[in-house]
Amino acid sequence: MSLSSSSSSPSQMYHVPELDNNDMDHVPDHTFQKYTSSNSTKRGSTSKGTSIVWFRNDLRILDNEPLYKAWLSSQTVLPVYCFDPRLFATTYHFGFPKTGVLRAQFLLECLADLRKNLMKRGLNLLILHGKPEDIIPSLAEAFGVHTVYAQRETCSEELNVERSVITGLQQVVIPCPEESSTGVTHSNDSPKLQLIWGSTMYHIDDLSFDVTCLPDVYTQFRQCSIRTCIKLPAFLGPPPAVEEWGCLPSLEQLGLCSQKVSKGMKFVGGETAALSRVYEYFWKKDLLKVYKETRNGMLGSDYSTKFSPWLASGSLSPRFIHEEVKRYENERQANSSTYWVLFELIWRDYFRFLSVKYGNSLFYIGGPRKVQRSWSQDQNLFESWKDGRTGYPLIDANMKELSTTGFMSNRGRQIVCSFLVRDMGIDWRMGAEWFETCLLDYDPCSNYGNWTYGSGVGNDPREDRYFSIPKQAQTYDPEGEYVAYWLPQLGKIQKDKRNFPGNLYIPQIVPLKFGNTGRKDKFSGARRANDRVSERRWNMR
Ligand SMILES: Cc1cc2nc3c(=O)[nH]c(=O)nc-3n(C[C@H](O)[C@H](O)[C@H](O)COP(=O)(O)OP(=O)(O)OC[C@H]3O[C@@H](n4cnc5c(N)ncnc54)[C@H](O)[C@@H]3O)c2cc1C
């Protein structure tokens, strides 16, 4: 993974070393070997024909059950990825780009890495452009495929695609190979889509209750056994004869303009970089032992794991992280930090299961509880938030980080969410859709789950928290380092001995009506206090 920081002051305070190439090469190979089954002759005796692995948000080899099942049940495996144009269209309500340029770049890196790793195992990745419901059935027909394996998704857009693929496959008729070759009986069949659960640490089938009975309070959830990672054989080939495996598109072909990450953390997509990050965070830098104390940080690469972009694309298996935590506990130490990383991963599972329980209501303005509240959709206010020019250093710094890197800390996300919905009174879905555009780790369940919580319309009525911006700044950025890193113009003003923050920091937003939150007074109070905090901080320099 490469991490970069700007050369101009005050970026020195954000010094993050680059992971050297030896680590990049060594760690994954070692890990891959550990998770490679030595018994590669175990392919089922009933395996037949060709099967397709339709890669979606499971862009990895390690612990990939659809890939394993496809290999087990067929003579040849055809791995496919479809560049679905709908992923590069616009968001549902507010027309933002559905996939921002940084996540698109991350995705391209994931796919390049997946192809490389598949080739190491004797396969390849067929890359095609179009809707899966058009591509998958015609491939199934062309290759006489009996089964298409894919990871199961839970949200409506993905479920609609699954349904369309199933309908498309039903139109395809594949002659049954054994019977047609004997010529005795001839039966025809349509290829099946086999969807496999694989995105969470807890398997949905291992929950001790039906997912529709998921508790609405997170602390009442948890306690479930975790399956071990699936080992795949070293050799998965040979692939079927394919004339042209297809190229990765450029960003321009996806309708996007490339954007360099000029400062902050630069994430590299793909399983290789994901495994390197696990190695770096757990073993090389030994950061796992202090995770609980550092996890609320905002500045730098090391305060939290930063696993989320790889988890969201499926380049990293949560069960693999679980196994590494357990290994760490055996080989180094078990403490509240090792417990807490798994606790956070269970939050991620919880939001995924909630999406099954609550379906589309996760995306509705009233959320799962159908809360009646009026929201503003004021464009000026929203844009000041989105572009990081509200006048509140902590908010603006976080929003700048998001647009520059595609990442924001969990602390930052909670703060900017609270500010948008409670101080500005803006429709929470505008914030959620903007996050959908920008986040490298965008995942509908975690994103909309957290936004419904943050805006008080989530399933748990007790989760209705207001974040006081000055208090958050004092607690989590007491020296103003984070703000200074992302808003260096404040530092320049200080140097010019101009009156900070008065000149630049006249809040550019005009408070509208905050009747819906009932927090009008708090807002103006918060603004004054925030300015005072900033002033004090800057005078200290
Ligand atoms: C408004 C809002 C929107 C969010 N949108 C997303 C999103 O689209 N995708 C996403 O992965 N996370 C989302 N989160 C959750 C959380 O902010 C990120 O998962 C976390 O910041 C990622 O950094 P990390 O990997 O260093 O986390 P760590 O602190 O190292 O945690 C380890 C892992 O636990 C999981 N996790 C931690 N906190 C949460 C949480 N609150 N909800 C769900 N999973 C969690 C993540 O997979 C994370 O990688 C959102 C949070 C908020 C408040």
TrEMBL record:
Belongs to the DNA photolyase class-1 family. The keyword Chloroplast does not apply. This is Cryptochrome DASH. GO terms for molecular function: deoxyribodipyrimidine photo-lyase activity; DNA binding; FAD binding. InterPro entries: Cry_DASH (IPR014133), Crypto/Photolyase_FAD-like_sf (IPR036134), Crypto/Photolyase_N_sf (IPR036155), Cryptochr/Photolyase_FAD-bd (IPR005101), Cryptochrome/DNA_photolyase_1 (IPR002081), DNA_photolyase_N (IPR006050), Rossmann-like_a/b/a_fold (IPR014729). Residues 1-20 are annotated as: Disordered. The record marks 375, 428, 451 as: Electron transfer via tryptophanyl radical. FAD binds at residues 291, 304-308, 344-351, 441-443. May have a photoreceptor function. Residues 1-11 have a biased composition (Low complexity). Binds 1 FAD per subunit. The keyword Cytoplasm does not apply. PROSITE patterns: PHR_CRY_ALPHA_BETA (PS51645). Keywords: Chromophore, FAD, Flavoprotein. Transmembrane segments: none annotated. Residues 49-184 form the Photolyase/cryptochrome alpha/beta domain. NCBIfam families: crypto_DASH (TIGR02765). Pfam families: DNA_photolyase (PF00875), FAD_binding_7 (PF03441). GO terms for biological process: photoreactive repair. Its cofactor is FAD; (6R)-5,10-methylene-5,6,7,8-tetrahydrofolate.
